[in-house]
Design goal:
The two termini are about 40 Å apart. Helix 2 packs antiparallel against helix 8 and helix 3 packs parallel to helix 8. This protein has about 375 residues and is α/β, with parallel strands linked by helices. It is globular and about 55 Å long. A 7-stranded mixed sheet has the order 4-12-11-10-7-5-6, with helices on both faces. The protein has a 4-stranded mixed sheet with strand order 1-2-3-15. A 4-stranded antiparallel sheet has the order 13-14-17-16. The mean pLDDT is about 95. It folds into 2 domains: about 120 residues, Aspartate Aminotransferase, domain 1 (Alpha-Beta Complex); about 230 residues, Type I PLP-dependent aspartate aminotransferase-like (Major domain) (Aspartate Aminotransferase, domain 2, 3-Layer(aba) Sandwich), CATH 3.40.640. A hairpin with a 4-residue loop joins strand 2 and strand 3. Belongs to the class-III pyridoxal-phosphate-dependent aminotransferase family. ArgD subfamily. Its cofactor is pyridoxal 5'-phosphate. One of its GO terms (molecular function) is pyridoxal phosphate binding.
């Protein structure tokens, strides 16, 4: 790829076809895709139901300016919010959604201090990068956006940093990029209580955890909290670019005309896909089946790595991570060679993100490949 910036470390394959959990590369080799495009294709690749509504929208209109009314935008916003307590701003990606949340938090509270957490990841634009608790993504870019402070994830010392000068607390309930670290519910509830006490806003980053990925529509539904804002992208339109920042009605006064915008936010094609995705995720049987499969998968993964020193399986739903006793990259390569695509989440953490529609047979096949890759890696080390 001579004419493309080398900012991605790419694996040596090109995926050219996909259906459900299966993808095919340019040489005709097939793989089980347990990355889902990094938690994007939650319904699998090219699901017929989404394809149908997108094709229908393609024959109507593709893009209109946000200077005009949009009934489709209102429909999807209502599906996202699920009640009248929240309003939605549409954009094109997770980092854009988080940028919108940062701007709104500061504009509404008239404060600058925003607290985020170590090992967090919120995006790569200047605001969202400044909110990210990983120094490796900030190197070489000069001064970042001021006002961000970092607290230790899952530690009560974080509560002491939330004060009357705090505009917002920005949190992932499962840190996907940071190692698949799961937030403790009691700690999260204490964070919300401290926010309410001091007037700070609670912002939940649901970019990777939302749209059924952790077993509920949104991860925060498992924590008995009511965030002031939450952000979505990735799985929302199953591969079409979309992001959304959702905020409580009280915040609307600070986001009037001219305060923020996006040329492509609310794109008709992406919205048509999102509407169908939400319709399917909201079927009770869908999430019930997902949670049964996910619990069994996690149980089998735990048994698989039982003999590895220092190993641990973490996560919720189909957002799972395995802490390994050594580098994850070699295991990822061995899995890929044998027809399974998985990811990392830090040097020693294997991240597994199957489509939410993956079958029991596909899960069993993935477990067999993963077992062989782990066995090969650590038998070689021990020998």
């Amino acid at each position: 790829m001579k004419n493309v910036f080398p900012n991605y470390k790419r694996y040596p394959i090109e995926l050219v076809e996909g259906k459900g959990t299966n993808v095919k590369d340019a040489q005709g080799k097939t793989y089980l895709d347990f990355t889902s495009g990094i938690a994007v294709c939650n319904l699998g690749h090219v699901p017929d139901s989404v394809k149908t509504v997108v094709e229908a929208q393609l024959n109507k209109i593709w893009h209109t300016s946000n200077l005009y009314e949009s009934s489709l935008e209102e429909e999807v916003a209502a599906k996202i919010a699920q009640n009248e307590a929240y309003q939605v701003f549409f954009c094109n990606s997770g980092t854009e959604a988080n940028e919108a949340a940062i701007k709104l938090a500061r504009k509404y509270t008239h404060k600058e201090k925003i607290i985020s957490f170590t090992q967090s990841f919120h995006g790569r634009t200047f605001g969202s990068m400044s909110a990210t608790g990983q120094s490796k993504i900030k190197k070489g870019f000069g001064k970042l956006v001021p006002g961000f402070e970092f607290a230790t994830f899952n530690e009560n010392s974080a509560l002491e940093q939330i004060d009357e000068d705090t505009a917002a607390v920005f949190i992932e309930l499962v840190q996907g990029e940071g190692g698949v670290n799961v937030a403790d519910p009691t700690w999260v509830q204490a964070i919300q209580a401290k926010c309410e006490e001091t007037g700070a806003l609670l912002i939940v980053d649901e970019i990777q955890t939302g749209i059924g990925r952790t077993g509920t529509r949104y991860a925060f539904e498992q924590y008995a909290i009511s965030p002031d804002m939450y952000t979505l992208a990735k799985g929302l339109a199953n591969g079409f670019p979309i992001g959304a920042m959702i905020g409580k009605n009280k915040l609307a006064e600070a986001f009037g005309p001219g305060s923020h915008g996006s040329t492509f936010g609310g794109n008709k094609i992406a919205l048509a896909a999102a509407k169908q995705v939400l319709t399917e995720i909201d079927q009770p049987a869908f999430l019930e089946e997902l949670n049964i499969k996910a619990a069994d998968f996690k149980k089998q993964l735990t048994a698989l790595v039982k003999g590895l020193p220092g190993s641990e399986v973490r996560g919720k739903g189909f957002l799972l991570g395995i802490e390994l006793p050594g580098p994850a990259d070699e295991v990822i390569a061995a899995c890929r060679e044998n027809g399974l695509l998985v990811l990392s989440a830090g040097p020693n953490v294997l991240r597994i993100l199957p489509p939410l529609t993956a079958t029991e047979e596909e899960i069993a096949a993935a477990l067999a490949i993963l077992n062989d890759a782990l066995l090969e890696k650590w038998m070689i080390q021990e020998g």
